[in-house]
Amino acid sequence: MSTEVSKCIADGRLLNKGSKIIANNEEIDLRVLFSVILQGKWPIMVITALFAISSVFFALMQPNIYRSDVLLAPASEAQGGGLGEFASQFGGLASIAGVNLGGKGVINKTQMAIEVMKSRKFATEFIQKHNLLADLMAADKWDISQDKLIYNPNLYNDKTNTWVREIKAPFKPKPSMQEAFNVFTKAVTVNLSKDSGMVTVSVDHVSPSAAQQWATWLVQDINRMMKDRDVAEANSSTQFLNKQIALTNVADIKTILYKLIEQQAKTIMLAEVRDEYIFKTIDPAIVPEVKTKPKRALICILGTIFGFMLGLIIVLVRYYVKGR
Asked: Which residue range or ranges hold the Tyrosine-protein kinase G-rich domain (predicted)?
């Protein structure tokens, strides 16, 4: 028994001694580390200063970006009433006629409008309709005194309205709609709040006036496009239903078809009298007075920190390589 106790005591002393050795080694390593850093303080300071100065110049070279937001609420659906009473009974007949009775499989019009705004087709038509290609692809700065865009002379000559950028095939001096769409999706964002159901359309641009104007046009164009779609669909359905009425002699079927035609007439009437067809503007877009980005102070801080870390790594790696 005494032998086992003696062995345990010896093992404990050995363990304590090993812990002291490890602690001493860690202390020595830390001392060496700080010594290496202290010896390489000048390279670290120089690298940090270079990155700090470079980040300042980089931040100052970035143009101010302004954001204009418009808050929208989905327009209330006023087409449901009469259809709901017989949609379950005659949904098959209506679907043959191409008439939407608002069943479970119906896609929400608000969500559809949002997806349309994000689509390449809508963006292309929007850019071409309002002649925004130069403002989107070549705008460099904004002259606050004249409220005028300044274009990059290496890309676009605004005096002759010609593109002068030098680029390799298959691209051309004038940007394609695919290029424009990629830039457009970064400048325009559409967000739907799941809690409130509100939709926010945001536009970022170097010109605050352009940002406000684009946001306003986006709402107007999506309302007009969705309205034209529903009117065209209602007119087509009405023509089909009138043909079916002429082909049948069954009074009950004729009654149903006339009710469907009545609903299409209501759709057309509501579309004609309602400018804000899909979205109602709750808070219109305004010309922003304060820039959204860049965050110049943050850029300078991150650049300085990165420079310090890089200098530290270089000094430690150099010491390690020399030590080997």
From this structure: 279-319
